[in-house]
């Protein structure tokens, strides 16, 4: 069944960001070439929308489209002075957000996280937004844990993305979550986008350049990716980079937004997902190939971060019609 995506455009919407969901989701195709998502765009009252630029956009639907959607995407809208000053929304926007079904997945792109926060949808959760406004977001909504370093945050039903092109990363993540890495990678190729970008928006945040030019850790990241099956330690990675552990960890986090070991665990898990989807290798062999050592450790990681066992994940996303080793 086609997954229904409704994109809400409000006055002040950024045109580039408004087009991201349709561009990505419409490129997600089944094996027979049919689209896996249907994407519609709406506004309050179906009215033309004033964009952030010097033109307006006419949409095909009013807010009733949100009531039947499986996923609602709030396109990037610059926070209004009222929102930044008081943390409150206009009544019509509040009413529209309240009309979304409790089971509907909700996604904010960039600064639209302010709208979800003001509506109470992010209370007690972790979130992100454009790095230039993370401090203002945190001050305005102290009950929400804001992470300025990541490209997106997935809380299950509620997801938020960082600034600009991070909306592409989040939409591809949803395709990957719904249909696996193969479908997401194919959609990314058709969009001429990276299927997965390393690190987070920490690498784009403006920092004062140190007097001594920092060496990149990218060569060590590539070195580690080629050795996922090996029991790599933080000391091994720092040694390869010719840095102390402390310096390596600091520079690694500056470049990727993650600690070296957390990054390594994510890469191992991503490789395991790829092998489960694209091969019939036994789970025990995949665990060894990805550096988990044994199936128990792999299952623990899958239950924690994917919510499924490796076998269940393979049944959902693996090669169809082929019996795989357990």
UniProtKB/TrEMBL annotation:
Record bears the keyword Transcription: yes
Database matches in SMART domains: HTH_ARAC
| SUPFAM superfamilies attached to this UniProt entry | Class I glutamine amidotransferase-like, Homeodomain-like
Pfam families hit by this protein = DJ-1_PfpI (PF01965), HTH_18 (PF12833)
GO MF terms, alphabetically ordered: DNA-binding transcription factor activity; sequence-specific DNA binding
Q: Where is the HTH araC/xylS-type domain?
A: 218-316
Q: What keywords are annotated for this sequence in UniProt? A: Transcription, Transcription regulation
- Name under which the protein is recorded: Helix-turn-helix domain-containing protein
